[in-house]
Amino acid sequence: MKKICWLAVMVLLLCSGTNTYAGTAPDSLLPVRGFCIAAPKVSELEAFLTFIRKELAPNKVNTLVLRVDYNYQYTSHPELRDAGALSREDVARLVKECRQQNIRIIPQVNLLGHQSWDNTTLNLLRVYPEFDETPEVKMPATYKWPNPEGLYCKSYCPLHPGVHKIVFALMDEICDAFETDAFHAGMDEVFYIGNDKCPRCGGKDKAELFAGEVWAIRNHLAQKNRELWMWGDRLLDGKTTGLGMWEASMNNTHRAIDMIPRDVVICDWHYERPDKTPVYFAMKGLRVITCPWRMPDNAVVQAQDMMQFRKTATREMKPNYLGMMQTVWSGAGSFMDEYYGRKNKMNAMEKDTVHTSSKCFRALFAEINKAR
């Protein structure tokens, strides 16, 4: 009888050993279980609401970051609207659906960098060209990388006296529309900052300029008790770490990590390798979320790492490890086509049919939900 009991105990231990987090509540396991995607077009709204209800909610996603940019009918600056942008009523439907599914919704408008894409100047600099940090760099008829001007995306000048009046109005309006207590400012891949030819920024420390813009945005949001979220790549030293110019900084903005407020939430994206930079951010006193994109195996490792960081952290450090967020760099409609197998061709940014954002999403949340 004793042998049978001990055998039963051993079987139970072996089975339970495959999941050290079994029975852990989702919010304790990973406080943030996020999904980031472009806000849907009006024609995609109905399908996206269904996607929230039938896919995000059952997977225990509790945070939705929507990259809105100019896909909203701004009344403060209607000249910056995209054609056919979402209305206030459309946004209200998104807010209502997320509230019913217990999902926190956070809008994003790219600030500082990403003011152009490919050979197109985006709305802010197209309408207000005086805000351009590098007006001498002209947009090419056909865009290629690399290029002699080092043009990836344009930036606005953070020291232009008129720029914050415009962008703060957009921030206030979009946060009000989404009834949110947080705003994502982007601020990734800023290659143009502190341009020597800029009459305001020339000769200034790039880290101080970057940190100054973070403070300006954060302080404006704080007036209404709103939280700033941002990408973390410009706060990492691309040379020392070997992470390079895309997932980290090669123009000295990385020193801004010691200059920015500690209540900013860092979205730490790494797509080609599951680098363990969340530890660096957390040790700097910043809350951090790990963000995969298209490589399922990497996403699984990153989720395991984040759960292990939280499990083994000190009491002081554990709250800095917030969780995971799947990022999608195609439109909502394109992603849903891929997700449901309706897609005839891959997104241009996805290199094969194995490494896609939809497969990454499935793998990430399968790992998270398996661990519960």
Mind explaining what this structure looks like?
Keywords: Hydrolase, Signal. It catalyses: Hydrolysis of terminal non-reducing N-acetyl-D-hexosamine residues in N-acetyl-beta-D-hexosaminides. Pfam families: Glyco_hydro_20. It comes from Chitinophaga defluvii. The protein is an alpha/beta fold and 372 residues long. It contains twelve helices and ten strands. Strand 1 (32-38), helix 3 and strand 2 (63-67) form a beta-alpha-beta unit. It starts with a helix and ends with a helix.
In short:
With 372 residues, the protein is of the alpha/beta class.
Task: For this entry, give a set of tags.
two-stranded antiparallel ribbon; alpha/beta; 12 helices; 372 residues; eight-stranded parallel barrel; disordered N terminus
Averaged pLDDT, please?
Answer: 93
Largest sheet: 8 strands, parallel, barrel
Helix content: 25-40%
User: Roughly how many Å is the radius of gyration?
Assistant: 22 Å
Distance between the termini: 34 Å
Q: Could you give the count of β-strands?
A: 10
Low-confidence segments, given as residue ranges, are 1-18
Strand order of the largest sheet: 1-2-3-6-7-8-9-10
What's the helix and strand layout?
Layout: H1 2-16, H2 26-29, E1 32-38, H3 45-56, E2 63-67, H4 88-100, E3 104-111, E4 116-117, E5 120-121, H5 123-127, H6 163-177, E6 182-186, H7 206-222, E7 227-231, H8 238-241, E8 265-269, H9 278-283, E9 287-291, H10 296-312, E10 321-327, H11 332-339, H12 357-371
